[in-house]
Amino acid sequence: MKRPEGDEKVSKWREALTQVGGLVGYESRVGKWEDEATLVKDAVREISDKLYNGCFRDYIEDKVGMRSHVEGLSSLLEMESEEEVRIIGISGMGGVGKTIIAECLYRQFSRQFTSHCFLDVKENCKQESLLYLQGHFLFKILGIEHIKLANVGAGSHEIKTRLQHQKVFVVLDDVDQEEQLHGLANDTSWFGPGSRIIITTRDKGLLQKCGVETVYTVKCLDKEHALQMFKQIVFKGIPPPDGLEQLLRRVSQLAYGLPSALTDYSRLFLAWGIRTKTKEELEEAVRKFEEVPQETIVKILRSSYTYLSRMVKIAFLHIACLFNGDHILRVGTLLDNGEASIQVLVEKSLVEISAQGCINMHVLVENMGKEIVREESKSTLQKQRILWEHLDARNVLRDKTGTNKIEGLAQDMCQMHDVLLIKGSSFNRMPNVKFLKFYTHLGDSGSNLRLLPDAASLPPMLKLLHWDAYPLRTLPSLFSPQHLVELTMRYSKLRFLCNKNRDLNLDELKRLDVSRSKGLRELPDLSSAVKLEELVVEGCEKLKFLKELPQTLKYLNAHGCKSLKNVSLPYNHYIEHLDLSDCSQLNQNEELITHFLTRGQNEELQASPRFACIPQNVIPTYFNNQSRGSTIQLSPNLVDFDACFMITCARPFHLKFSKSSYSLKWEADGVFRFNLKPDLYLSLETEEEETIHHLVIIQGLNNDHAGNFLYSLQHPPRFDSPTVEIIACGVRMNLQEIPNQI
């Protein structure tokens, strides 16, 4: 049929299309297109895409924090790469927003693919088998119904065969088992060039085991974004009433940055009619919600716990009730199979490990763990696995109602306003307690907890005994510490750990902290404590000797031991950090420095230089290259060296050094920079004006830069207080020449 070229209506259409084509960069007369039908198709597609992209931008703007997630993941997807198949993992704790992020990516990119699919894996697997899921996956991708699959292996083969030449965009949402990935997207070779596969899961370990190398971790919202999200859901962009800002902030913080929890709270307050309530009514509602967690939130979080092994569940509960915020190495030694269990919890997104190595469990996850402990005992206090509430622990101790079900007991003594007198027999009914924590906050040495010395005893299975302001002069005579891994008794009234005629079995002890025990006169022979790695005696002002220390010791903090005269380091020691600052009575400084520098085991410490601070006003001749001030030139062929600083501190200021008090690195300009950051504090006692000298030593420094550069050793800009100054420095070059030939 011949087109009616002269038809007025067709002419108007052609003119309109020409104008539209010009607007979007098309010109029908240019000759780029074979015919006008192709022009129309391309113009419509581009206009449609621009309209869609505009809608998509509006869509993600409505979701707080979504833009940064989409941008971050878009760069990982590398959509411009047409030949590569990329598989990306999105991990994070339950309710953090992984699915919504994946949905946004699917909305943005799936239109660019002829075949695409968004599959809720976990929910489908609850209802049907993996074999069914494979068939459903093929149906959603290809549109072919009733594909017969004999078994999962056949399903995997069918997916690979049918899709290995197709460019697909696939989201596999909420994957929680390895076999699900093996059955649906086992390898990049299953999909055609340019394909993109996104996998969301709470289990980062699952992604690692399945070879997914690129993983994007989703974090909780910060406080400001949480408040913004709450306002957006509840008030729909309308400014909230005046005077409610602080209350709204409290409401938004009920979710502790967890988006799903925040959404639930927002909807609850919206249904309650928050827009029409008075400030007083809102205050009362917030108080009630703060006391009772929402069931839907608990359900989301609890599903991650359900499938853990028994041992990992126990570790999870102990961390939730006792060890949230503690260092991973410390907790790993206290719990049975601790390091492996913590790793599983990290993989399942139930805990995170901070840059400092501390375990961080989200507050809502912690609360869920505590609720599980209560449920286990059917809210019977005496049978509860762990007691952490102040009143609960107090009542069980006071009334002697403990049972063999109790494994851990914690008491914040800052909350104890009345004196609590307990007998050793209070622990007799709790033989299985492994973790005992009676703690105060740093700097608070007071305690209203009293222990009667007569026939006093402690649980025989203790692995952790943390008792700040311990009231007796020795450990109970009937207590056998053979299982102790950590003994912490800060601000105690100890004079000796035990009677002199008694030997302590400390075979398992790894950490001993008796800091600020001002009456402590002597420690027992610790040479038999063959696992001891950390010893803290800071502020033990009457302690005179540290003798017979074990070879395994890595960390020794004796800052402020004003009476300390002698420290006996083992002959082949492994000391990595030694702080003897403000030990003014030390009479063997030169000998101690020599021992530290020349009698240590070096092989295992190459990756971690040794640090020491010792009272001294002269740089030893061991450091054969010395300079005044804080800068020194190094040989351009330097490979291995030891360094030192002479640092002064004017009273009434004092300085001490923790593991985080220094950092070091080689910089691009050939400067080795050692940043010294002592903990500086002001003495509360009246002291004469004087300047104290300390020698800071860093042993075992390596130069990874092979080139003829001049290096300068320098400290960072002056400390805030002018009372601290580096006045001299020195270097010993252990390997100065690099041989030209081997």
From TrEMBL:
Residues 76-236 form the NB-ARC domain. The keyword Ribosomal protein does not apply. InterPro entries: Disease_R_plants (IPR044974), LRR_dom_sf (IPR032675), NB-ARC (IPR002182), P-loop_NTPase (IPR027417), Toll_tir_struct_dom_sf (IPR035897), WH_DNA-bd_sf (IPR036390), WHD_ROQ1-like (IPR058192). Keywords: Leucine-rich repeat, Repeat. It comes from the Eukaryota. The keyword Lipid biosynthesis does not apply. Residues 315-377 form the Disease resistance protein Roq1-like winged-helix domain. PANTHER family: ADP-RIBOSYL CYCLASE_CYCLIC ADP-RIBOSE HYDROLASE-RELATED, LEUCINE-RICH REPEAT-CONTAINING PROTEIN. This is Disease resistance protein RML1B. It comes from Cardamine amara subsp. amara. The lineage of its organism: Eukaryota, Viridiplantae, Streptophyta, Embryophyta, Tracheophyta.
